[in-house]
Amino acid sequence: MPAEKRISDAELAARVVRPAFGEVLTEHMVSVQWSAEQGWHQAEIVPYAPMLIDPAMVGLHYGQVVFEGLKAYRQPDGSVAAFRAVDHARRFQRSATRLAMPEPPVELFLDALAELVAADRRWVPEDDTKSLYLRPILYATDPSLALRPGTRYRLLVLAMVTETFFGEGAPPVSVWASTRYARAARGGTGEAKCAGNYAGGFVAQVEAVEHGCRQVVWLDAAEHTWVEEMGGMNIFFGYGDHLVTPPLSGTLLPGITRSSVLTLATELGMTVEERMLSLAQWRADCASHAMTEAFACGTAAVITPVGHVAAESGEFRIGDGRPGPAAARLRTALVGVQRGRVPDRHGWRHELAGPDPAARTHA
Questions:
Q1: How many C-alpha atoms does 200 have within 13 Å on its Cβ side?
Q2: Are residues 32 and 102 in the same domain?
Q3: Cβ contact 109:160 at 8 Å
Q4: Is residue 170 within 8 Å of 296, Cβ to Cβ?
Q5: What is the CATH number of the domain that holds 189?
Q6: How many CB atoms lie within 10 A of CB 54?
Q7: CB 3.0 to 4.6 Å from 285: which of 34, 103, 247, 291, for a disulfide?
């Protein structure tokens, strides 16, 4: 994009003062095409702008759409690094495979992120409360209403400036345990990051808001008994220094943040257990004060404490309703790695852009 067509530094600064999640997108995007004849081709950086689509597009009618979400952070030396980008690339591939779509190569995924950051580097926040959220999306573009997988696809990568999903320093969230709707069933698409999973969850989220809650807690589809996820996030239960989280059963999204929490918790001296927990047991453990805290985790939410649960069967509070110590320790450890404040023992930071001499460095 020619310099004269870019927004001014002053306008950019004004846009990112309080960037609501999903609202403040940068000036460019990556576009890559795929066809059975040519494979991946026509990779380019283009200005962010509306696009024309065919009204009979397969992705629009039959939901062949998968996406990812990961964040890039400015590092103390002025470089820009994405958190666990390779793991996000591999999950993107698994999602594509589940929906009978071509797998974008890991190298293409990483190159696309780097090219977009290079084009819109000035959008990478220096403010420690903000980050650059990267959204790869893959969808079928065939202009056909035949009920079959597409033969042509388009990969886009967008970027936006965001704060945490619930706001920095927000109080613990209240949640609604839905016994009316289900997110996913075994054999379905629960472990894929596909558009349909989120569209199907909107009605339950509306139900949660109607009951004065900010998020929905998903229970299993068969019995509406066992806790699985919270909105689009994984959930953890704290019993002092012992953490419990639902196991990956094929109905849960295998969260990258979830995986990171399991690793960091062990390093912090906590014990971790993957096992099923019923809504009734959740209530009982809170009543007996055996459970001291609960929190959700995800790329957008980072680590968000849960303070209050509501359901058709009644309400209950977790601990004293305030953030718990395990969530606080884990958040500090996680953010420290993401922002380059502590050594990266696991190779989780993937550099997208080298040090910028003009950038402000952090102490």
A1: 16
A2: yes
A3: no
A4: no
A5: 3.20.10.10
A6: 11
A7: 291
Residue 189 DSSP one-character state: S
- φ, ψ dihedrals at 95, nearest 5°: -65, -45
Structure tokens at 69: 């979400």
Report helix angle 106-119 to 85-98, nearest 10: 120
Residue 325 vs residues 127, 262, 318, 320: alpha-carbon distances, Å: 25, 16, 13, 12
Tens-level pLDDT at each residue, the chain (363 residues): 888 789 999 999 999 999 989 999 999 999 999 999 999 999 999 999 999 999 999 999 999 999 999 999 999 999 999 999 999 999 999 999 999 999 999 999 999 999 999 999 999 999 888 999 999 999 999 999 999 999 999 999 999 999 876 656 678 999 999 999 999 999 999 999 999 999 999 999 999 999 999 999 999 999 999 999 998 899 999 999 999 999 999 999 999 999 999 999 999 999 999 999 999 999 999 999 999 999 999 998 899 999 999 999 999 999 998 899 999 999 999 999 999 999 999 999 999 999 976 654 433
Residue span of the structural domain in which 65 resides = 3-167+342-353
The pTM of the full predicted model, rounded to 2 decimals, is: 0.95
- Cross-strand bridge partners of residue 216: 176
Amino acid identity of 27? E
104 and 18: one domain?
A: yes
User: Do 107 and 187 reside in the same domain of the chain?
Assistant: no
Do 318 and 308 touch, CB atoms closer than 8 A? Answer: yes
